[in-house]
Amino acid sequence: MKSKEEIITDIKDSVPTIYAISDSIGETAEAVARAAASQFNSGMVDVIRVPYVSTPDQISEVMKEAARQKCIICHTLVCPDLREAIAAEALKYELTTIDIMGPMLRGISKIVDTPPKLTPGLIHKLDQEYFKRVEAVEFAVKYDDGKNPWGLPKADVVLVGVSRTSKTPLSMYLAHKKLKVANVPLVPEVPPPEELFRIPPQKIIGLVIDAMQLNEIRQERLKAMGLSGDANYANVERILAELEYAKGIMKRLRCPVIDVSNKAVEETANRILEIALRAEK
To answer: Which fold has domain 4-120?
Structure first.
């Protein structure tokens, strides 16, 4: 068994180490440790990440191991019990600890009216939500207006309807709710893709609209494009034929149908969300 003097010598000869302890992934603690270590000669300091610490016993084991080395401890612990445990163990082994999260929590507490949640890993949950939203937006763009029909089975929701029934605005709005939405225009002269008929009916939403309202919307669209409002695109008979055709396709698909007449995008989107939620159950 080594004497106390031999243990002290081993500690002096060991590579300086920073233990980055966290009750979550530990990326923040490690990043701060490495950023600080980079201010010294390269290779002079080793950084050991210790993630997902959840009990005082784990703290005790880490600190006991750390005490055998020339080291300091940094941590981003938010759980009060773990913070107390690391303080007690640091005192026991005479180790230096740096609380990365604590000063920020105390500082922010002075400028906000609510106490901190003290829940580990919240930032990563927020990151995941953000990336899900970005992925859904990219999906909506990629599979907008019938593009890439082979991607339809990947969608959470597929919107079908004639032109100017708010398919694209709805797709983008729902994407910000983290739903992957594709949309397919229904045009009498263009058969719908075969992939559409292989999708479960509850994942498809048919959109219909009052013929006269659609006539007004299409006329405004033509004017905005500098075209005559008398074009066949805005012709009432043509619109009635398109709507009849679309309803026939929706009947074949056996999908839910929403009338978007005089409805805001948000109102229709909420109805779609209700249908999608029921389909999941």
So the answer is: Rossmann fold (3.40.50)
Question: In the chain, where are the structural domains located?
Answer: 4-120, 123-280
Question: Is 123-280 assigned to CATH 3.40.50?
Answer: yes
Q: How far is CA 250 from CA 9, 107, 196, 253, 279, in A?
A: 81, 57, 11, 5, 17
Tens digits of per-residue pLDDT, 122-158? 666 656 777 788 899 999 999 999 988 999 999 999 9
Q: Is 232 left (phi over 0), alpha (psi -120 to 50) or beta?
A: alpha
Tell me the C-alpha distance between 145 and 180, whole Å. Answer: 14
Residue 1 reports pLDDT greater than 80: no
Alpha-helical runs (H) found in 1-98? 4-13, 27-37, 56-66, 80-93
What global pTM score does this model have?
A: 0.61
Tokens encoding 132: 């899900």
